[in-house]
């Protein structure tokens, strides 16, 4: 399919399978592309949907899916003939008074989801065979659904995601950039939890860290919920009071022998500035210094931003090369996407990009 400019299709018809995918299992694969393999990887990415079909067709009820994201530096190396997506830039590292959001390498990202782990594993294996000698795996995480959608801190994670079939599309998919309609911006961070410190907190105190009750998953009343709770700092609005949302699909991961207990944070947004404002609130604080208390128990060890192109671009990038570039407007048209990722709320200190 040609670019959104030509097709007149709805964003969700142009998008990769970002939304509505029920996943009990996921593999998050971050790879870098070796020098000299740029063109081969660009061509190889067109084969990913076919590989997904080969693996998934045999057990269709597992709903195997794959979303592919492209990092800023790889875009410059492999897609320089195409108009650059306006929100694409390296993940912006943030240094707060206590905690840091690191920026780590990532050229291409594969988000594999299915209801069974074997399906994700087989597709990951096929992808690595397909790109053998062209890429190096920087990070590989196996996520699993844990009881009733809980993270390893014991809280239900995902409740306040924008609801399908309208709010999730609006939040996640570019809808008013004719060229890249159906695209999205993906931000990922791998967090490791300090479980002994967390478990030492009484449940009532844990609830004040998150901003919701643990067992019943009810949001704390405003007069009880601390301003440095995770929920308080992640409910953000534009200047007109409209809530700005992202679509998250976090999953836990871990290795008991290594005492590794983590949350893989993964989010899709039509405008990366929304996710970046949340990260700023969490790490720098809102106001600065009032940082997210969940970070006292959770350390971000990776951080990457990717453009998730409409599916037609991966299939046939050349068809986008001769289309006129249009300014990429935000779906949340009430705010602008700044190059530093800030929505301009508060006074924010940022460290340099890595
Ligand atoms: C250690 C990593 C993280 C954990 C364990 C975690 C866990 C949670 C939990 C338990 C909730 C409450 C239930 C829900 O609505 O989903 C929540 C809400 C939320 N989180 Fe996180 N989260 C993490 C990182 C992040 C990051 C990095 C962001 C943004 C950049 C983020 C954005 C949000 C948002 C937007 C909400 C919904 C707020 C609302 O509307 O009530 N989270 N998270």
UniProtKB/TrEMBL annotation:
Q: Cite the GO molecular-function annotations of the record.
A: heme binding; metal ion binding; peroxidase activity
GO cellular component labels: cytosol
Please state every residue range assigned to the domain named Dyp-type peroxidase N-terminal: 18-145
Tagged with keyword Cell cycle: no
- Has UniProt tagged this entry with the keyword Iron? yes
What keywords are assigned to this protein? Iron, Metal-binding, Oxidoreductase, Peroxidase
Top-rank lineage group of the source organism: Bacteria
Output the Pfam families linked to this UniProt entry. Dyp_perox_C (PF20628), Dyp_perox_N (PF04261)
Q: Which residues form the Dyp-type peroxidase C-terminal domain?
A: 148-311
Stretches of Polar residues bias are at: 329-340
Q: Which cofactor does it need?
A: heme b
| Ranges for region Disordered | 322-354
- Family to which the UniProt record says this protein belongs: Belongs to the DyP-type peroxidase family.
NCBIfam families, from UniProt?
Dyp_perox_fam (TIGR01413)
Q: State the protein's name.
A: Dyp-type peroxidase
